[in-house]
Amino acid sequence: MKITSFDPQVIQLPGRSDYTWRSLEVPIGRYVVLRVETDEGIVGLGEAPAILTWGGENQRYSGEDPEIVCHLVNNVIAGKLTGTDPRNVKSALATMDEFVRGFPYTKAMVESALLDITGKAAGVPVYQLLGGAARTLLPVCHSVGIAPPEKAAETARQVVEDGIRHVQIKVPGDPATDLAIVKAIRKAVGDDIKMHPDINRGYKDAKTAINSIKAMAAEADIWAIEQPVEGIDLMTRITTAVDVPVIVDEGCWSPFDAMEIARRNSADILSIYFTKAGGLIRSMEIGAIGRAAGMPVNVNGSLEGGVGNAANLHLSAALEGQVLPGVISINTLKGREQTRIGGVFYVDDVITEPFAYANGCLTVPDAPGLGVELDEDKMKKYRVS
């Protein structure tokens, strides 16, 4: 089997609301869908939800946007991988790493398309290529975007009515505002819901972060805190000073980051985005480091559409060790909604079938490959370029 062509297309999904976080500068839902075709007629799908402001700490990793992704695929990667066997995924990763330094979102998109082809050719789901499923039901954590306390609380209340028991709360990084938001949400959802604020590096010094986290823990019973500051030294100071678990997100992109975090005790939980890591294989390596270090992980992907979210589900299924609920979209299709707002970031999608949802959990697809197909009418409807 040989790769014959790459076809990246930019689409814009319609968002459910004005969901945002502290550093987000553009609407979500504008991303690249990739088709990789082969001489045997098998087509692999990938997705890159790339945003220029979504990069690593201290300029360590670059942001990407759809135009950059398409340029790299059309003008660099296609020329290196066309004519090769798509099932040699690690060889393809090595080739991309040689000719493209960085740009993990682009590489993750290509890798998932190759794994999709490999799974379809073998007649097995992608999670089997990653070692099999450790779990098939995945609890959903919903992300509440930055909003005034009353609006955020009402959103969280509706999410809980949809059956979701875990809530991530985006806050702006102002201690008084952050506390008001989490207290309002706690009052609205009751005592049985697990919730944690995501600061997205909003606090600028350790003392402010520590005092704010302790106040939220005492007055709103948060169970964890996500990426309160930027930089491994500050994260270490905070992790050792507070009682609630600290989740690292922007500070953990690669297996090399994960090793340093474990050595420096700069977090308690590793947040894995398969796109940040450069694909599912590198994400599995991060998971293995977490397991060896006694650190739970979670898999996040609120930005992703249906193709990217399928990759998230296969990764969540295959990871060993303790996997905590992550922010994973339910991928609503217009007219086939399974919740009102819980787990819903877009009001439509370009896949033909929604992922099965019930009682706060998604079921991992078990069809060959990623287990998703594109709705060509929707691709035309939402295509930008």
What is the beta-strand fraction? Answer: 15-25%
The separation of the N and C termini measures 29 Å
Number of strands: 14
Oligomer: single chain
Structural class: alpha/beta
Q: What is the CATH architecture descriptor of the largest domain?
A: Alpha-Beta Barrel
Major sheet: size, sense and barrel closure? 5 strands, parallel
What is the CATH class designation of the largest domain? Alpha Beta
CATH homologous superfamily name of the largest domain? Enolase-like C-terminal domain
State the helix count: 13
What's the CATH topology name of the largest domain?
TIM Barrel
- Percent helix among the residues? 25-40%
Query: Spans with pLDDT under 50 lasting ≥5 residues?
Result: none
Broad shape: globular
- Main-sheet strand order equals 8-9-10-11-12
Q: Give the averaged pLDDT, no decimals.
A: 94
Tell me the layout of helices and strands.
Elements: E1 3-12, E2 30-38, E3 43-48, H1 66-81, H2 89-99, H3 104-122, H4 126-129, E4 137-139, E5 141-144, H5 149-161, E6 166-170, H6 175-189, E7 194-198, H7 206-220, E8 225-226, H8 232-241, E9 246-248, H9 255-264, E10 269-272, H10 274-277, H11 280-292, E11 297-299, H12 306-318, E12 323-324, E13 357-358, E14 361-363, H13 376-382
